[in-house]
Amino acid sequence: MEETYYLIDFENVGLKGLEGAQNLTKSDWVHLFSTRNAPKINTATLANFNATNLLVHEVPAKSQSVDMHLVSYLGYLLGSHEAAPQIVILSNDTDYDDIVSFWNIEKGVIIRRRDKFQPEEVMSAAPKAAKSRKAAASKKTAAEPKAQEARKETSAENPPVKTRRTRKTRPAQAQDEAVKKSVKAAESQESPEKDGVKADASPKKSAKGRAKADDAQKKTAKSGVKAAEYPDKTTLNNAVLKTLSNAKYDNETVSFAASLVTKNFAEKGGKQTIYRTVISKFGQERGLAIYRHIQKLL
User: Fold this and answer.
1) Which CB contacts under 8 angstroms, 24+ apart, belong to 69-77?
2) More confidently predicted of 259 and 209
3) Residue 201 shares a structural domain with residue 264
4) Residue 116 has pLDDT above 80, yes or no
5) Which of 10, 115, 117, 164 is the most exposed place for a label (fewest CB within 10 A)?
6) Which of 63, 97, 132 is the last residue of a domain?
7) Highest mean pLDDT out of 43-52, 93-102, 141-150
């Protein structure tokens, strides 16, 4: 039968706390902590402990003296046993509950606080808890090697991806320059009209170009061409979606282009922004093909 240790705060429970001692057995150990100021125990009460192991600890009569000595002995019991024994503290002092909670959280040890002997309850509840802790520990120990092997295999199959940013090499820089040049060349060959007039590189002609653009806008507004076809952004968005879908472009490309056109169509220099963004995202050849479809709607 598993041993049970009863630690009695006699100054707290007094003689009433010793009731039920006749139900104890030889596997029970009773440690009674008291000072010289505690009530005297008569022989009839002591006789109830004949079938058990009783030890009396008289400690100095100071503030919290019994509590400190009792808790100190509790630590000694836990440290001197390979497996935590069943321990019951007999006291009405709820301050012991913090100690009970501490050991339960730290080491999974079950300690009970009672105001009198209840051997049947302790014997029925504590062993089950101890067995469940041992079973859980054995399962964890058995599963750990397999978990380590699984982690090693996963690490070997999927090496960590380096996320550190690195400088571009010379070939990469040269490629970027080539892309910029190709985009610039494409713009010079087939640059969209800005406000209805092609961009003019000559400063002297820029004023005339703006004047022509203003005239073109006025004519467009009067004739009701293009702009009137899209009274709102939703209509324009649907038109782009339909045009590119009919041209057999994938959904991602269609959605991106529609969102780009809707966002920039009414902005100053919006057509240039649309053109450059499409070329930059899809490359010169594919970007130009996509833009031609969009240009028909602008």
Assistant:
1) 69/33, 70/7, 70/9, 70/31, 70/33, 71/96, 71/99, 73/7, 73/31, 73/33, 74/7, 74/99, 74/111, 77/5
2) 259
3) yes
4) yes
5) 164
6) 132
7) 93-102
With a cut of 80, say whether residue 166 has pLDDT above it.
Answer: no
Total tally of structural domains belonging to the chain: 2
Residue 150 lies in a domain: no
Cβ atoms within 10 Å, residue 179: 14
Domain that holds residue 112: 4-132
